[in-house]
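Dear Dr. H.,

I hope your travels went smoothly. While you were away I took the liberty of generating a structure for the chain from your last submission, since the lab meeting agenda had it listed for discussion. I wanted you to have the full record in hand beforehand rather than looking at slides cold. The sequence, exactly as received, is reproduced here:
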Amino acid sequence: MQSVIQQAKRLIIKVGSSLVTNDGKGLDKQAIAKWAAQIAGLRAMGKEVVLVSSGAIAEGRQRLGFEKRPTAIHELQACAAVGQMGLAQIYESSFREHQIGTAQILLTHADLADRERYLNARSTLFTLLRLGIVPIIN
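The corresponding predicted structure, in token form, is as follows:
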């Protein structure tokens, strides 16, 4: 694995909800700070990093006071919308400690299925990487 990382120019890192939340009950600030430090280390090695992160629904659940994960799509979307704010804030402050800027990218399947939208998203990601920003995709 070490050899693969050393040879790579760009790394895509996916962290699921279990890696960024406290048992699904809101965001784990310490875990996110560790992810930011590890990514800062990769950046110091000259690697471009794109972070794909879950956790918005779990954070929104906590902020909205839901005991259990909702099943209705409108409630899930409400949790994600509220939680995305907290997720972006924690990532921004964690990366700022390493003098690294971040950007929030929200993508849907439709964004990738439509050629024009896909090319626009790709161009945006490449621009952010060129500018030294860590794109965080949800």
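Two observations you may find useful: The helical segments are 2-7, 17-20, 29-44, 56-64, 73-96, 109-113, 115-130. The CA atoms of residues 15 and 29 lie 14 Å apart.

With kind regards,
E. W.
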